Amino acid sequence: MRKTKLAAGIIAVASVMAVQSAFADSHIKKYKIEDGAIKASLTGKTGDAAKGKKVAINRKKGNCLACHAISDLKDQPFHGNVGPSLDGVASNYSEGELRLRIVNAKTSNEDTIMPAFYKVDGYNRLIKKFKGKSVLSAQEVEDVLAYVMTLK
Amino acid sequence: MTNIKSKLGWKLATAVLGAAVVAGSFAASAVAKDWGKFQVEDRRSGYTYMTDETRDVQNDDFENPGMLWVENGQSLWSTKMGSAGKSCASCHADADKDMKGVAPSYPKYNAKMGKMETLEQRINRDIVEKMGGKALKFDSKEMLSLMTYVGKISSGMPVNVKVDGPAAPFFAKGKAFYYQRRGQLDMSCANCHEDNPGKLIRANTLSEGQINGFPTYRLKWQKPGSVHRRFKGCNKNVRAKPFKRGSDEYVNLELYVKWRGRGLPTETPSVRN
After folding, report:
1. Per the CB < 8 Å rule, is B202 touching A130?
2. How far apart (Å, rounded) are the C-alpha atoms in residues A10 and A7?
3. Of B16, B191, B273, the CB nearest to A113
4. Residue A11: its chain B contacts at CB < 8 A?
5. What is the pLDDT of residue B31?
6. What's the predicted TM-score (pTM) here?
7. Among A132, B87, B122, B250, which residue carries the largest CB count within 10 Å?
8. Who among A7, A18, A67 is closest to B236 (CB)?
9. Superfamily of structural domain B2-62+159-272
10. Which pLDDT does position B26 carry in this prediction?
11. Does CATH place domain B66-153 in 3.30.450.40?
């Protein structure tokens, strides 16, 4: 019984990463990095935390739980621990720092395993259907950010 | 990552995964356990990252579903294939003796081809050139059976591939592949299997990605699979375009990955989630 559950989990992880974000933008909006942060919203609007929570959970979108535990989402199965827990992260970083971290974590740590969620170029052997696509759209980044900002 | 943080992830997982699984991953990451022959220096077989339950399936020949494939391979060994009317046994009558130590030494440099050759390719060379047959696909029932059988004959023998001399440039290519980020998620093999073994990526405990147990019987696949099938899967998971089975890229990568597990016991047919 547990075996089947495990197998199902594994299939889920395999497909985590295998399906594209259907609504991702084809074009990256310009943004400015200053003092280790992107201070302005990518869309000019504030994100929707409730939507962002769903994006963070969704295995085909943010899938933040693949690597991060979030106590607020303890009703969700399978929190990874490849990255640090995101509990309290909004008290430790500014909104702009967190936006940059989600847009492209490699700007602060080029060796990180954390994917860049808002980037389309410079990829090696990208599968065709993801060409010109970012993992998340600008709006989805803002929504996830709004949710992460609730993790005080 | 701090301990407190990693424990939090672990606790959360406990709630959903149940004690057995977590005990497995905890032992794998935090407690220095004696893994016996499954660990050589700092290298550990995927066996040590599995749950006790999966390990039990591998340990018990009657429960291990890979054993059926060993038996298939054994009977195929003496089955005629191809226009020459020969079987493997026509040339290698005593497989237990003739094939001992073969699996842990591949991929091997082939001077005629001027490149590395995997065990599947070596088997196919005999099928085509000596037996007048058609090359078998890597993940065909026949090839997996032969591979599992030949692997099993070297059970317990340490992985020992030659990576110097003429193999050196191919080894270097395989190593470069291993550290190259790829796909939309922009990850290298090393990001998962060198930097994070023992950590949970969602529900999966990452291992070192060793290949000493291949063809491995994967419960998810419900059959054994080739090393190159696994490489394709890991490439696709990061949204990268995979290479073909038997491509030079994967053959060289296989050499490098096999070397990473030098000294680990041949474990075919291993059982993995």
Report:
1. no
2. 5
3. B191
4. 220
5. 63
6. 0.88
7. B250
8. A18
9. Cytochrome c-like domain (1.10.760.10)
10. 47
11. no
To the nearest whole Å, the CA of B16 is away from the closest chain A CA by 6
Confidence of residue B32 (pLDDT cuts 50, 70, 90): confident
- Give Cβ neighbours of residue A58 (< 8 Å, ≥ 6 apart): none
Q: Which chain B residues are closer than 8 Å to A17 by Cβ?
A: 185, 237-239
pLDDT over threshold 60, residue B49: yes
If you average pLDDT over residues B152-171, what whole number do you get?
A: 98
Tokens, residue B148: 């599992």
- Ranges of H-type helices in chain B: 3-17, 19-29, 52-59, 66-77, 88-91, 95-98, 119-129, 141-153, 168-179, 189-193, 227-237, 248-260
> Which is it for strands B216-218 and B271-272: parallel, antiparallel or unpaired?
parallel
Nearest CA in chain B to A124: B182
Residue B30, pLDDT score? 55
Range of the domain at A47: 2-148
**What is the ipTM metric for this complex?**
0.87
Provide the pLDDT for residue B29.
Answer: 52
